[in-house]
Amino acid sequence: MLKKTLFQLHWFFGITAGLVLALMGITGAAVSFQDEILRALNPSVLSVEKREAGVLPPAELVRKLEASAGQTVSRLWVESESGNAARVLFTSAAGEPRAPLRYFDPYTGNFVGEVVGQDLFEFILQFHRFLVMGETGRQITGACTLILVFFCLSGLYLRWPRQVASWRAWLAVDWRKKGRSFNWDLHSVFGTWCLLAYLLSALTGLTWSYDWYSQGLIRLLADAPQNERVRKRGPTPEGAAQVANYDAIWSSIYSNAGPGLSAYNIRMPAVAGQPATVYYLLKDSPHDRAVNQINLDPATGEVTAHDRYASKSLGSRLLTSVYALHTGSYFGLAGRIILTLSSVLMPLFFITGWLLYLDRRRKKRQVRDARKGLTPHTCDAPAWLIGFASQSGFAEQLAWQTAGQLQAAGLPVKVQPLGSVSQDDLRQSENALFVVSTFGDGEAPDNARGFERSVLGQDLSLKGLNYSVLALGDRQYEHFCGFARRLSFWLTNQGGNPLFAPVEVDSGDTTALLHWQQQLGQLTGHAPAAAWPIAQYENWTLSQRRLLNPGSSGSPVYLLGLSSPSPHRWHAGDLVEVLPRNCAWAIEHFLEGLGLAGSDGVLIDGMPQTLDQALATRQLPDNRAHLVGLHAQALANALVPLGMREYSIASIASEGVLELIVRQERHPDGSLGVASGWLTEHAALGSSISLRLRRNSGFHLPDAPAPLILVGNGTGLAGLRSLLKARIADGQQRNWLLFGERNIAHDFLCQDELQGWLASGDLALLDLAFSRDQAEKIYVQDRLRESAEVLRKWLNEGAAIYVCGSLQGMAAGVDRALVDIVGSEAVERLIEQGRYRRDVY
Q: Where's the Flavodoxin-like domain (predicted)?
């Protein structure tokens, strides 16, 4: 909770105060080297010729300056041996702004020319401190400086690496990263580099923003608070002008400072009766603000107080050196350069912070798209509970669309993943709808395993609960919609009242989904405005087909490449749904004995086609006895359309080619499976393949950079390959792949690519399990057990586990291995945290 709160505050302040801090950083960097820049712009003005006689004493300088300007000197800055021009301020008349700073030759007392850039730096300084907005600007910069302190502390907490002892985790930028990961690296690593500099700048800069802060420092650090400088804001006091005896003043300065005097700054009081203040530097001063202070009577030169820098305590010296600490000059030239570079980098954090924020907004917008039309629950009526259990994201999408239809009818809704639905949620709800998929052969999706363990099967009284279930499944599996059926059966046994019969959807069947919508319409009294939008199939061109396992004793595996005339985007981990077609030989064989010709005309969805074309998209039963005697149109109408087939995408969108890894399925009679046969053999290169992209959010990469453990076998490499490609494109190298197949000689799929990634460091670890290469079969779950210590280490460092491949054998074995290695509770926590994800079949 603390981390989430700090994160929210960090980004909120970052996108608001970040711009002001960026401007303060740039202007502060410029002011840090103001003197050097001005001297470079005005070499003939700000540099004067040194003379053996030395600089003139203050009395003579003041006399010449006042005679030349016709004004009374207020402040005088003189460096004894530097060869730099001295500076003077004259007293302004009451009510007038402060007179401009003027430069003169301390060896002659003559004014030098106008200084180019002086007004610009005065503006920059005012912008740095007050945004050129006076007191309002001072409050803004003060607040932003406090926020900078918060950024430093919260940023350190938020980015605290798991490998605390690793300097690379703290300080190294991986320049090969791209996108969000690279922005995160810049933001966090450079933030660590600049952390101390920003804290120093902020904690010292606050003295110019808040009197309470300045006074607090004085009380905390000063040896004698009454003698420390206090910035007083307000009108200049009125009264008779002070009469100054500069000879006496100079005598006091020299007698107290001695021959080591390097520079002095005389500040005359505004009115008579007040002491003058002299700040002076010695030649052996540790930095340019290690000043000594003398308070004296300007008329007599009598010293009333003398604070030597060297005699002060450490705290008082730091207080005197606030400006030097702020600019870095306290640490010499190197300190100034470091503070300046850190200031120049301030816009980097504003820019990368915004990029990270916009990326976060984009991802949230994608979630909102699924919740389109949904508004917050504001009425007093109890909300309808909509629970979803989704492995690939389809059930979640349908849950939000269900919620939208209910809310359009004026009903309040509450949408929750089934894993977060508790026994109390069910007891307290009057109406509930469950949109659940079944994983594998009758199992609960990963994010509903906790619900199945802690809620499903418990003895509850749900007599007040009205419910219905939308069940998603695939009839290819023996236990079609197994989890949804168990859920519905349990709800009924607990006394729940079915609103209407469960609706079972086979492979996204649109007719069944429309039936669910119509049932909701009857329930609410509001018919659905339109059928829920379903992505349309598009024609892609089969552009490449390469055998990956020549000579294998197993079925051939092919790498397929498909291209589209229009650009498409998908995420690593997403799926495609392919509409297969029967091959010409299968259609010809099916028509034998039916007395029909493939060229006969039929109408499909109102469009004229030949019978051959129609049969290419229909299931062709082995038993045709009931079809004999039908005319062409009746035959086409009697046959069920072929179902789509899902495949994991093996490439990333930026490559411009959608790649699949498909294994040929061969039936006992020797014939090829419809979909795998069509893709790997029957469809000619250059022909069209009907497919549509499907989002698989449950197998997407983590939002934040984290180590990845990828486990798979056979064609499961496809989904893992897309994740690896995305990670490599993003510059992330903490990738560990465990891959299994039959024989290394023939079944090492994508061997050159994987070994190349290992050699380049894009794969940190590659563990292989070729089951037929030794007497005792070895699988990926065995390799996982062998590397148990490495697995625990990676998990402790925040790694996420992704499993892709066969459900029976591999996925179940990996699950058992994980339980044996880290324990069942730890596995459940990984699932709840989204750090254990599976795309298995």
A: 384-521
